[in-house]
Amino acid sequence: MTRPPEGATGAADRFRDLRAMWRGTRGLCPNCGSGGVFTSLWGVAPVCPNCGVRFERESGAWVGAWVLTYSVALLILIVVSVVLIVNFGLFPGLEWILVGTGAAAVLLSYRPVKGWWLWWMWAAGFVTRDGEDDIEAYPGSGTRDAKKRG
Questions:
Q1: DSSP 3-54
Q2: For the chain, how are helix, strand and coil distributed in percent, rounded to 5?
Q3: Rounded distance, CA 44 to CA 36, Å?
Q4: pLDDT in tens, 85-129
Q5: How many whole angstroms from its chain centre is CA 110?
Q6: In sequence order, which residues have a C-beta less than 8 Å from that of residue 78 and are 6 or more positions away?
Q7: What's the rounded Cα separation, in Å, for the pair 114 and 10?
Q8: How far is CA 37 from CA 43, 61, 81, 150, in A?
Q9: In angstroms, rounded to a whole number, what is the distance separating the alpha carbons of residues 133 and 54?
Q10: Predicted structure pTM score
């Protein structure tokens, strides 16, 4: 069973676990801290080789990571654009500098953002072991009682 952070009482406490957030951002399993999350530059293993949590429950689970990556890249691109235009004005080749900056920003930020997104999915209870959900991992959340009644 997935172990909550020390003293955790529910899924909300997972969002306060900053160590798990940094582990995810560095490409480590947010649940146990082991490596082996990424199988390639951007590919994620189906399950953690150490604790067995499944990283992708549904197709499209990583769309949020792409949205965040493009948002980060856009912010970087805006800052670079403003700095260059304020200091040098519009000049020939500016568009190629911005295209290169945008591409580099997406390529360099995707993996850390995807790791952060993995942490977010873990904190929200979407990343669990097969057959286990957030209700079992954190008893007393109240949702189990609602299932019994319904």
A1: PPSTT--SHHHHHT-HHHHHHHHTTS-TTT--S--BSSSS-B-SB-TTT-EE
A2: 55, 5, 40
A3: 9
A4: 999 999 999 999 999 999 999 999 999 999 999 999 988 888 888
A5: 10
A6: none
A7: 24
A8: 9, 15, 35, 37
A9: 11
A10: 0.73
Nearest residue to 141 via CA among 41, 12, 22, 28: 12
How far is 15 from 101, CA to CA, in rounded Å?
32
Nearest to 30, CA basis, from 38, 21, 39: 21
- Residue that wins the pLDDT comparison between 131 and 104: 104
Tokens at residue 39, please? Answer: 């199988």
Residues in the chain: 150
The tokens for 61 are 């689970």
Q: Which helix (H) or strand (E) holds 128?
A: strand 128-129
Quote the tokens at residue 59. 């197709």
> Each residue of 40-69: pLDDT tens digit?
888 899 999 999 899 887 888 889 999 999
pLDDT for 8 beyond 50: no
Whole-angstrom Cα distance, residue 58 to residue 72? 24
